[in-house]
Design a protein that fits this description.
Elements (H helix, E strand, L loop, with lengths): L22 E5 L5 H15 L2 E6 L18 E6 L12 H15 L3 H6 L25 H22 L3 E3 L5 H4 L1
Parallel strand pairs: 1-2, 1-4, 2-3
Helix pairs in contact: 2-4
């Protein structure tokens, strides 16, 4: 099984896009929508840092006009909803081996990454009646760990290629915490 993000073929991870300009990676969360635009403007104005906004998809952005998404501060918007889709058919033994290698290399348990998410983690709560999340409908444990693996490797590649000065993420969201 190959990593979720191929460094040479993923159009999101183009090298040299910003030249030598410093970059901030900001994971969109609706709770932060009122501060993302002003923060990006300030980072650009004071430090020359251009912001790469990462979101599930553009439709998930609340009040994009208030965020000044067309200004100089927001250099790019990356959509990652495809990484939350159920994984294609996979060889369980091959994925287990890859997952073990990843966990050994990073010290992260993919199951812990899944548990920390407000949507995926509901599957691990016992004795409570939480509503099912739309993201975990019909997913088994291995599929959820595979999604966490894809998100982790995607984030690793994104950070390796963009070498950000700062990363801003919102807790409780698997996409930004992975």
């Amino acid at each position: 099984m190959k990593p979720a993000v191929a460094k040479k073929t993923n159009p999101v991870l183009r090298e040299g896009e910003f030249g030598q300009a410093p970059v901030a990676i900001v994971w969109y969360a609706s709770q932060l929508s009122h501060v993302i635009g002003p923060l990006a403007e300030r980072l650009f104005e004071i430090c020359g840092i251009r912001t790469v906004l990462v979101c599930l998809d553009r439709r998930s952005i609340v009040r994009p006009d208030a965020m000044k998404l067309t200004g100089n501060a927001i250099a790019e918007i990356i959509e990652v909803a495809h990484l939350l889709e159920p994984p294609p058919e996979m060889d369980a033994a091959e994925f287990t081996e890859e997952a073990r290698g990843f966990e050994s290399r990073t010290g992260l348990s993919l199951r812990d990454v899944v548990r920390s998410d407000r949507h995926f983690g509901i599957s691990y709560v016992t004795g409570a009646e939480f509503p099912a999340s739309r993201y975990t409908h019909n997913l088994d444990d291995m599929q959820m760990r595979h999604i966490a693996f894809r998100l982790c490797t995607y984030n690793e590649d994104l950070i390796d290629h963009r070498t950000p000065e700062v990363v801003l993420a919102y807790p409780g969201l698997i996409a930004s915490m992975a």
